[in-house]
Amino acid sequence: MIKAILTDIEGTITRISFVKDVLFPYAAEHLPAFVRQNESDELVKAQLDAVRHEIARPTANLDIVIDNLLSWIKEDLKVTPLKQLQGLVWQTGYQQGHFTGHIYPDAYQFLQQQHQAGTKLYVYSSGSVKAQQLLFAHSDYGDIRPLFTDYFDTKVGHKQSSSSYQNIINQIPFESHEVLFLSDVVEELDAAKQAGMQTLQLWRDNQSQSQKHPFIASFEQFDSERI
Fold first, then answer.
1. Considering the entire predicted model, what is its pTM?
2. For residue 101, which phi and psi values (nearest 5 degrees)?
């Protein structure tokens, strides 16, 4: 019996193009100025130091740090300090109304229904928890953060590692077989299954498809008894 749902964001409940065509370009354009203006802020400074640690250059100047951040954005690398800084930049964009967080209509309806039915909803995304909460706070449907019980990002581990999903299980009050993981990425589903979770793939946005896991093309097709 499914008692909790752990969901990915990109390609699952929001379109991939929103991140790639809206959020990433916005961060790339505004991140250098944001970092220069806020480098003395303790939260920002901690992430800049984390970048220096990541590139093994503890004395790297700000130009080098920014160049690496922009390179990671271009390469779409899931580096934790980059994700943290992107979240801070996106906060400004959301608050100033430059964009709202895209949510598929069928996903919004599904999340609402599951929440009302008493199923606990959790989020696991490579984007930082801050970025996740910003998207949901400023979504196309308003502030939908109350739907979710908790959020996880790469601080628990890489999304294609089974140990990451075990780390999540250790932090929530459910057994692994009671949790359904939703994602469009086969390797993530494989890792979750190895950790004992139930899985369901979303076939959206021309992502790679596999019949190794149960799958649907829309949440309108969701049937818990067929998983």
1. 0.83
2. -80, 115
Class of the CATH domain delimited by 19-95: mainly alpha
High-pLDDT (> 70) share of the chain, %: 100
Of the candidates 208, 207, 210, 47, the one whose C-alpha atom is nearest the C-alpha of residue 130 is 47
- Alpha carbon 169 to its chain centroid, in Å, reads 17
Query: In the chain, where are the structural domains located?
Result: 4-15+100-226, 19-95
Question: pLDDT tens for residues 177-194?
Answer: 999 999 999 999 999 999
Check whether domain 4-15+100-226 has CATH 3.30.930.10, yes or no: no
Looking only at the bridges linking them, the beta strands covering 120-124 and 150-152 are: parallel
Q: Tokens for 29, please give them.
A: 């354009």
> Cα separation of 208 and 56, whole Å?
34
Res. 70 pLDDT band, cuts 50 70 90: very high
The H or E element that residue 7 is part of is strand 4-7
Asked if pLDDT for residue 19 goes beyond 90, the answer is no
Beta carbons of 182 and 7 less than 8 angstroms apart = yes
> Are the CB atoms for 123 and 161 separated by under 8 Å?
no
Rounded Cα distance between 137 and 94, Å, is 9
pLDDT at residue 76 tops 90:
no
Q: What is the pLDDT of residue 20?
A: 85
Residue 36 CA to residue 189 CA, distance in Å, equals 39
With tokens 């992107």, the residue in question is 86
Residue 117: DSSP 8-state:
T
